[in-house]
Amino acid sequence: MGAFSFEPLTLPDAAERLRAEVRAFLAREMAVIPAVIRAQSWSGSDAAFSRKLGAQGWLGMTWPKKYGGHERSMLERYVMLEEMLAAGAPVGAHWIADRQSGPLLLRFGSEAQRMEHLPAIARGERFFCIGMSEPDSGSDLAAVRSRAEKQPDGSWRVNGRKLWTSGAHVAHCMIALLRTSTESKHGGLTQFLIDMKTPGISVRPIRDLAGHSHFNEVTFDNVRLPATAIIGQEGQGWSQVTAELAFERSGPERFLSCFRLIAEMLRIAGKNPGERATAAFGRLYAHLATLRRMSLSVAGRLSRGEDPALEAAMVKDLGALFEQDIPQLAHDLFGIAPDAHGARDYERVLAELTMASPSFSLRGGTREILRGIIARGLGLR
Amino acid sequence: MDDTRAILENAVNGLLMEEVTQKLLHESEEGAFAGALWAKLEAQGLIAIFDGLENPFLLAGAIIRACGRQALPLPLPETLVVHAVLPDELRNTLGTTPIALAETVAREGSSWVFGRAAFGRQSTNVLGLYDGTLIFARKAELAGKGEAIARDPRDTLRAAAVETATPKHDLTALAAMMRASQMAGAIERVLELTVRYATERVQFGKPIGNFQAIQQQLAILAGESAAATRAADAAWEEADRGGNVRIAAAIAKARAGEAAGKAASIAHQVHGAIGFTAEHVLHHFTRRLWTWRSEWGHESHWHGELGRHVLMLGAEGLWPDIATPA
Lengths: 381, 326
Ligand SMILES: Cc1cc2nc3c(=O)[nH]c(=O)nc-3n(C[C@H](O)[C@H](O)[C@H](O)COP(=O)(O)OP(=O)(O)OC[C@H]3O[C@@H](n4cnc5c(N)ncnc54)[C@H](O)[C@@H]3O)c2cc1C
Known about the structure:
The complex is a heterodimer of chains A (381) and B (326).
Chain A: H1 13-29, H2 35-39, H3 47-56, H4 74-87, H5 92-108, H6 111-122, E1 128-131, E2 147-150, E3 156-163, E4 173-179, E5 189-195, E6 201-206, E7 215-225, E8 230-231, H7 237-248, H8 259-269, H9 275-303, H10 309-334, H11 345-356, H12 367-377
Parallel strand pairs in A: 1-4
Antiparallel strand pairs in A: 2-3, 3-7, 4-5, 5-8, 6-7
Helix pairs in contact in A: 1-4, 5-6, 5-7, 8-10, 8-11, 9-10, 10-12
Chain B: H1 3-19, H2 22-29, H3 35-43, H4 56-70, H5 76-85, H6 88-91, E1 100-108, E2 111-118, E3 126-130, E4 133-137, E5 141-144, E6 154-159, E7 163-165, H7 171-200, E8 202-203, E9 206-207, H8 212-241, H9 245-271, H10 282-292, H11 299-322
Parallel strand pairs in B: 1-3
Antiparallel strand pairs in B: 1-2, 2-6, 3-4, 4-7, 5-6, 8-9
The structure holds flavin-adenine dinucleotide (FAD).
């Protein structure tokens, strides 16, 4: 009836069976991982852990077998992801490759690109980063200036600067959005697959406010790329990147970033923290349960091949509000200062997530941009 | 969605959209009983749905949400909930007569007093819960008139003779789900009205919906609407599955109640002064939202109940509970 809908979804039995397997795996693997690393969730990177997931067959799960995938359903993948996130598994190293670079190559890549990269991604051995943002191109992504110029021999020469590139220091490859023509803002953009070892690329870590260096500045100084580095069509970068962003907005990572803090809060609270704290946990639970139902509904539609871009934006917007409420609530309830070097897990996890929380409504499309998308869906733009 | 449900849902939406005019709302709020409309609801088969239909709760939830969308000033939601909790042999004697639902029941000497009975004056039949037992009166008398700011009757009824029964389902939970679904429906309507107004109202030479500040507010309202509807519908789905209805009801009522407050304030802000008038249609919905969110347990009541559930689950139990096959 309306502009959006969130139909119910019941997960298939196969997905629930997989859940049990994933839990058994996590029970074995997570015991040794400290609470504060678990709190980093999908920002935390552990190449060895990624390879283990590859060996389990949990990367590239939905891709065709001929590309090293496992031809499992999207809903099985959803369950695997939510279990990883709830446990705080260090999934950051392969996260981008598995979530968006791989699917992008499946959709737009050449056969050679797929054969070269997809099996390695699925083994947990090849990591990707996203080169979209630049100093003057944030929300206004089409303002990208970094240039790729076609050379007489068909190769490309790249100059420019990418900013905030998460994981560029561990990634083997980048998918970059570059300007190949200045004639049209949106029509002059092309996506390239770039080997990070190519001469002329330098990666400089950027320290974030928590002291981590998860993201980077990547500079291109006369970098030569072969003609085969193009992904899809020259000049089609904008529509390809829009499709890519849809993979980025719909998953359970959009409301589970603070789940480990909820767990630590419950430990601190004990069984009888008083009426106010009890009610606060109740509200949190109502929101969490509802967000998961909404997110599952989006997953169901994606698995039927639909494009619920509006609903995905709504889940991400509500999800970020929820995630950002949690450190605030912890502060309100317990009066224990966040401390990255504190004695208790609670203090350290609260420190980690208090400092991480501003990014929840920035990365993957800011709150204001998402609300603009929702308003357009309502017919207002 | 199965066919019966789709057909009935369309029927109720279509019928109510046509029949519940603003005139009817005004007359009802002045005290008239929309008996002719009740007869139409009967004729469409929208009342006796707990008579062997498949997934009756899902259907009930959809009908009740449609009632909320139109601010239906009749006890159809209440009657459906009563039908759901009464044992079959008792329900079978009731046909399709409207039934009032009381939020409180007390004993006064030899008689029973039903408090805050929704649509009490429009029915001689009333149901309430006393100490875990259903108390049903067929010949209740009006003992006092009241109305919440919804301006739907919330009366006091008195009866000497009552029948008692063990509830088939948790009445408090179903009544909370009823208000949650009415709120979800009313919020959907409020969103529609507000989006439409934003595209029509012109200031500074353009529709106010062109202003980003308004767009951002409407995006928030849309998110609240989606959350309320998903949470409310999920509770009825849970009831058909025989799952933990109490918890699903608590989630539904708490989440929809929170959405109701936000939705009403954004809608009024966007509507400006015209939305503040008796003449405009908006208040029929927002007054009901403000009423429904505090009936059958307001947010903090259900938050407390959910909070105790969470504390019992503890740090390790929370995720398995959230991810329990729904
Ligand atoms: C932790 C983290 C990791 C990241 N990782 C990557 C990565 O791996 N690769 C990558 O390419 N990028 C990455 N980014 C960058 C991210 O995509 C950008 O931060 C985001 O697109 C916003 O751009 P900006 O930071 O330049 O903010 P700006 O676009 O300058 O926005 C600043 C403020 O203005 C608002 N604003 C901007 N335009 C409008 C408008 N039209 N209407 C209303 N308000 C507006 C914004 O909503 C925001 O509140 C990452 C960011 C973070 C925080």
